Amino acid sequence: MKLTHSFTSFWGILLHFLLLNTTLVHAHPHNVLHSQSRSHSAVPRVQEEHKALEKRALPDLRVMALGASIVFGVGSSDGNGFRKLLRDQLRYSGYNVDMVGTKNGGTMKDNDVEATSGYVVSQIHDASKLSYKYKPNLVVINAGTNDLVHNIDTGNQHERLKSMLLDLWSNISEKTVIILSTILPVDKPDAESLRGPVNTKYRAVVSELRKQGKPIFLADLDGFMTLDDLGDGTHPTDYGFRKMAGAFWSAFQEAKNEINDPLPADLAGDSGKTCRKSPGDGVNAGSQTQRGSGYDDGTYEHDSQEMGTLMTITSDWDRDQWFFARIFRSDRDDLLGWVENSAGNVVYAVRRNDGAGKFTKINTDLDVHDNCKIKGVVFIDLNGDGLDDFACIGSDGAVYASINQGNGGGDKPPTFVYKGLWRAADSKYPQSKVRLADIDGDGRADFCGLADNGDVYVWRNGWIDDMPKYWQALGKRFEGKGMGNLDGTRFEDINGDGRDDWAWVGDQGETFLWTNHRSCGVGKEGDGLKVAWRPGYYKGKTSGPTHTGGFAKGIRNRIHFARIYGEPQDFGLLGKQDYVYMEHSKGSDGKHTFKMRVWKNKGYGGTKLKGDGNKYCDMTGNGRDDYVWVLSKGEMDFYPNAGKDFITDKDSYWGPMQKAFFKPPRDLDRRDLHLTDWDGDGKCDIVWVDPDNKNHVSVWKNNYTPGGGFNWQYLANPAPELYCPEKRGIGFQDLPVQFADVTGNGLSDYLCIEKNGRIWGWTQDSKGSWTYIDQFFGTKGHDRANMHFADVDGDGRDDAIWVEKFSGDAFVYYNKGRKDVAGSRYHWEIQERGGPFPAYGGSYAGSCQYFPDLNGDGRADLHSIQATFPNTAVTAYNICGGNRSGDDSSDIKKPDLIIPP
């Protein structure tokens, strides 16, 4: 923001002249943004002395352009829209002009604006409050197109507009002049039919307020601007913006005599590079900054290989007593049989899965210390350690838990510790309507309640302990498919991506499947962590079941899904679940025979999303983060930052893609690969943390040169002292290690993040030496997967960012440097009332928010993935508060406006 006027030697001469000619001078006691300094643009062509004197006789203009995408300039070739044209006309006419607003858009130097694409009148009203502090004495408004397009309360649209106008005068100045335009034509019949009545009401509002003595004027675009002036049916072309600027200029001619000098602006601490970020003050890049990069594995197509009868068991009972559970290891399901022993206690006979379809009966029964009846028994991972625990669902729907201690081996089953009540009963969900499933993919079973129509309501199992620390209501996360009954409803991770899929098993074993995928849909507690469901089919089919079944009627409860072979679909995935039919027959002796018939899962798809491969870092050293899309096995595609701050729908934000600019020597899980500036040369290197060796590091040093491209130097073990014993979780962002520049010296520091969010590790100095830090950051009760590190305030040190998982809102613990505070070796500033500072307003789910520096100003921007399947994205720049100002040329020329007749 230009807050002071740089006087040239000419101004010294002129000042002397003006002191001798005081009658030519118009006094401006309050025309400053800060009380000690003026804010206006340098006078062009200083040799034209009498024009300069003329300009001094006019009030300074502090102009806020207020609205949505049209005001922002979407549709114009330079992103300036009508704003630069209007500004240039005002400058040419002798006015000093400073555009104000918390957003920036377009190529013009003084590109401050208060406009956000997609906003309706009420949102524009809220956004206008961010710029009250600038005390503009002229506000030009175009607002309301989005209300029409989405048919949002158009009958009261004029009243919402009026409320905004009155608030502008109440909070800025009663003397602030407002020029309001009517709404442009729109090439959508429903919206266009509403436009005429709304514009009529806009005119009435202006007339009413004018009669009350308010300084408001109308720029009427009806009949002057047509659909021919719009490039996409909504936004003007460059020609259309010339007409729009002309209409505002014509209205200004009526308004100019009522304009007074602006009041002092309230901008304490609002200039410079290191100001704090506030929600809602991001600057939209103009259009989508990602439009569908990356690869996926499509929707799930089931196929199977019949493996025959793997085991035959004779029993005295047929009572649905068979269960499959991962009690010894996470990649195989063992077979458990419910038994009531001679003491009247329930235990489970165990057949250990030894792999390759082989099972071994072990001599010691499994005791879960719960005499749960068969209908209530569930084996599922409750605490996210990869092993199945025990849950008993009572007849009233209450759930009780015993936790697998993971100490089984050989002929000894693991110990289970009874923990008691896991989830209290809910009268809506008795036993028959309760299911346990990992819906959000964090490895922990959630509580699912079934409605009569098959809709599924979910409560998330929160935190990291064996028992839930809290429950978070997710709302309705699945819509029933009209299958006729609830008995067949199950949740199984069929494809091995770590998220439980919805399956409905029919009476003859036929199974219908919808796979569970992460969604970027914004939400809130009670209606959040939305799921993108996709139907799966049998290979080559586009309808019908994935598993055809076709057995005798009445065998639904004899169908199981289990990791008998546990073969992953691909590298980095969990094992797929095979199809098991416990075929029953009863002998003449009254004994029951069960044949364990298995169909190995050979299905494919539904596990890899385009949205899972996104990484951002400055790979070329130009100060702007580039885009790197990483395949699941570690190969990387490079999209260079094209250096375009603002783009239109016709532009690409990135330069030409370089495919496979990095290929690892073997398959490496992309979750273990990090882009970070290891050596402080300004270019990001590639660091691999070995998940099987305490996350020790290997580095590919980036030796990129502008003429020579990328060259990688492999460093096998550059820092042997670095380690982290933590393991990554199931979720793609639940990582044990992150790299961040905590010290602010330009070098990567190594952060080991415990599951509870406590962080320790090492800092790196300029010589490449590492210093152990016993605690960077204490636990704050945040899920590890929701923690990020980036420089939010531009001071050179990475701050800690916590992203709220439902809404995508992000909060910052500001890094104040090395200082022992509350058990940590670094000081993380929080609000006086406690908790991190609100910084970014989310429009997408937390897992879809990234914080790269895309415009190269040293501040973390908000880059939001809009949807996981197409992998599109939008960007809001984090630009330090305060206005930009100044002319684009020292020679102000008259712009080519098109004036209304």
From TrEMBL:
Keywords, alphabetical: Signal
First and last residue of the signal peptide: 1-27
Chain segments carrying region Disordered: 264-301
MF (Gene Ontology): phosphatidylcholine lysophospholipase activity
InterPro entries reported for this sequence: Ester_Hydrolysis_Enzymes, FG-GAP, GDSL, Integrin_alpha_N, SGNH_hydro_sf
Protein name (Swiss-Prot/TrEMBL): SGNH hydrolase-type esterase domain-containing protein
